[in-house]
Amino acid sequence: MLTDDEQSAFQESIARVRQLAARSLRQAANADEAITFVMNLHRSLDTVAEQAGATGPAPDCKAGCAHCCHVRVEATDPEVFHIARHLQALPATALAAVAKRLQQHAETARQGAPRQACSFLQENRCTIYTVRPAVCRKAHSLSVQHCASLAPQIPQNLRLLVDAEALMAGTAQAYADAAMPAHAHELNAAVWAALRDPTALRRWYEGDAAVLEHSHAVQSPGGPSTPGI
Ligand code: SF4
Fold first, then answer.
1. How far is the CA of 148 from the centre of ligand 1 (A)?
2. pLDDT tens for each residue of 127-143
3. Is residue 83 a contact partner of residue 75, using CB atoms and an 8 Å limit?
């Protein structure tokens, strides 16, 4: 729970990020540059997480621990296209294997499974680690026991969450200011939708907010929207 002063500081941070990001996004000459811009958000989040880990309570997260990769995960439009571009550069056989996993994920979600592993999780490692979305970068836990027992509340570093939320909200608003939608979509379904439709990226860049909307039809019901939260 934030105090009134902390709330004001939070809103000011969002406004500051929005202003800076909007200025850069206005200079994006094409869709490719517009989705590349989301890497600035990711770099900032990684820095915030690193600093929080160095100064605050130590996260209980370790490589190979993937409890938070079995809940609903969301990504914004530019993040989805950023991941799709990364996947499209893979060899054809690797891309086909990912597409098959995404399709299976969508089918399992359609059948109402409340929890399933993210399609990008292989042998408990993230296969898209360098391009993973913001929610995965801010996800952490101060108690792996809470994650393992599916506790409704996971203890977390509040400072990290607040700083991360300000970066994410400010960036999403800047995309919206530049007439490029940055709504939250279920990660797997949205990437699958982006890969299937060769016109999706162009239409998103032209301001079509519904490009990834139909991916919502295959979302898993319920569950938190952020890994580990
Ligand atoms: S994108 Fe990577 S880190 Fe995020 S939920 Fe999927 S496997 Fe886990």
1. 17
2. 999 999 999 999 999 99
3. yes
